[in-house]
Amino acid sequence: MGIRTIITTILLILALIIISTTTAAAISCDCGDICVNQSGWWRDNGALNASTTPIQAAVDNATAGETICVAAGSYTAKVNIATPHLTLRGEGAGVVTVNVTSISDHAFEVTANYVNISGFNATGATDFPHAGIYLGGVDYCNISENTASNNYRGIDLGDSSNNTLTNNTASNNSYGIYLKSSSNYNTLRSNTASNNSYGIELHSSSNNTLADNTASNNSHGIYLYFSSNYNTLTSNTASNNYDGIEVHSSSNYNTLTSNTASSNDYEGIKLGHSSNNTLTGNNCSNNNRGICLGDSSNNTLVNNTASNNYYGIDLYSSNNYNTLANNTASNNTHGIYLRYSSNYNTLTNNTASNNYYGIDLYSSNNYNTLVNNTASNNNRGIYLYSSSNNTLASNTANSNNNRGIYLHSSSNNTLASNTANSNNYSGIYLYSSSNYNTLTSNTASSNDYDGIYLYSSSNNTASNNTASNNMRGIYLYSSNNNTLTNNTADLNSDHGIYLHKSSNNTLTSNIANLNDNNGIYLYSSNNNMLTNNIANSNNYGIYLSSSSNYSSLADNTANSNNYDGIFLSASSSNTLTNNNASSNNNRGIYLSSSSDNLIYNNYFNNTNNAYDDTGSNIWNTTKTNGTNIIGGLFLGGNYWSDYAGVDNDSDGLGDTLTPYNSSDDIENGGDYHPLVMSDNTPPLGITYLQNITHSRTYINWTWTDPVDSDFSKVLVYLDGVFQENVTSGVQCYNATSLISGTTHEIGTRTVDTTGNINQTWVNNTATTASTLDNTVPVINSVSLDPTDPNTGDDISVTVNATDNVGVTAVVARRMQFDAVGVVRCCVARKRVVARMAQFDAFVVVRACSIARERVVVTRRMHFDAIVVVRCGVLRDVAVIHTA
Fold first, then answer.
1. φ/ψ (deg, to 5) at 61
2. Distance of CA 179 to CAs 85, 125, 135, 789, Å?
3. Which of these, 120, 144, 114, 119, lies nearest to 132 by C-alpha position?
């Protein structure tokens, strides 16, 4: 060996000694149990273990419960973690990158439980189905503050449960965060998933909690798919995705609360083929569809806000038995939209405002219930198109630009107690074969055009509705066989109730008052029935125009209208009976170019009652038994307040000055049997019927006659047997020839001058005396007031007298006075004349136990005696000394 060779060998040995000495030097590791850098790994105060795959080498040399700290740098590795309770902590996702060795590898693959990974950027696993961080069949792992980018799946959990993912970022992957194959009870909190195809997806994974995550700029922001059930999504943000949050394919019983899904290209939140989910307090704005349900049933949406979308809340195709309550849908094209066979849904207390359509049921949406919703300031408030058997109750649809409630080709719906006011067109509008609907107790007032408008819609029933202060209250155009009952159409600027080319309708008990034009107006409308309606204080009360034929008007009231109560223009073959048209300013009834109308048993009380310019109408029917409109016994013609003829045969029909022609305003004929007013009202009964006196053989009764001006007499019966007529003013009856000790009943009925008898009995019972009365009355005391009168003074004489039968009068005799005392009774009238006296007046003393009478004194008087008289028989004398 040469010298050069020897020297080279020595140098190499020295170099190896130096390298060996350096490698063996102790290195600190104060962040965990094992530290890793790009050269290798070491333990605290240990030597560096060089490795081309230092992270995997550290994992392989770690034991359960240890922490591995990875320093900044870029690592090419596939890290398999099979040791439980192991923690890998990178220096930060922004400075520690793990790039897979092959696109068909996972950057991190965890196959042990209780593994914690944080602070890494895992990238490069782009081949299906690999991930930046993959948990396979493991539980209770914690993945936090990592970045998983540019992988097929960023963070992937397969059949892994009870894991926690926090503050991770998953971007530019096909799937950002992916839970599959029964990955249950995991918690995902404050993660960010952006620029992925699927931001966060749960596939067949249940009972997971997603809170405060952000999913943006993905195709699908948060996606629950294929029987992912009982998951809870709270306060997540899904924005600028194609779909924000989507629950799909039998993903049921999930709860979505307080999430924000905004500015997504299509849906904010979508439920597809999923049921029994609850959405509460979510905010979905600036999407194409805020909240969308497709083929999803039994879901509950409460207190959500959907604004500035094309569709606010959209139930699309076969969504049944869903409940929408207290949601707000504003500034959308469609606020709340049910379409294509979405049935049996319940919408309660929702607000849909400032949309084009507030609440819209479109195409075969049936058996839905809408209660207490508000749809205001839209173009159309509530709109039903080709939707049937729905119930709308107590909703408010006010101040919409078009119509409040609008039914288009929709039938068998019920509208009850809704309010549709101040809309620019109609309050409630039924259009184009909207048939068999029921409108009850709705209010449609102050609309620019019509309160309730039926256009080409038939067989509807409207009852107890209020349609006031519109242009037209209730308007039927080309609508047949409808029934309007108990509606109020007042104070409209045109017509109260208007039928235009509408036939076979029934109007009953409606009120149409104070309208600027007509109360009830029929234009070219036939075979309608108007019964018991009130049309007062309009321009015209009831107006039939332009061949409105073959209708029946019965029991209607048309009073106090500015022109005519009932007006027929070019309308024929109608029947008018039992109507009242009174106090109208022009005429009660006016017929112009109208023929073959039958008009009888109506009441006309106007200054000018009738006008008929054709002379071919019939103004009476044949005399027929039956109560007429003024209570008479026969039907015939009409009651005319200005008929001056006479009823000669007392049948209640006029016999002279016929036919009645309203002062020649009825041409060629008139009423041949005008009704004459008869008095059919009996007088009141007598009052204060009482027994005044009686003896062994008679009983005397008195009473007060009734105050009726036409009272004539009293029919008197004794013990049920007629006795006599007592004429007005007598007011007493004396029954004589009676047996002592017997009881008798007087019965009375009153009769007026027309012969009407009050059928109510007024009776009284009294008994005759049983023995002869030999007991004289007793004067108990006599007093004068004043006790010492002067000439010209009034003296009040008070006598207290009693008797076993009764005291009828007290009379002073043999005294000087300026009066004559007249004692009255029903049996006899006695005049007691005092001797030595001058008489200027009569004093009437009625039966009583104490008599008080006033005597005008012209000089001092001497009373010799006070006499007590009972029915004219002197009973007692008491001597009185000079007063």
1. -100, 0
2. 21, 17, 9, 126
3. 120
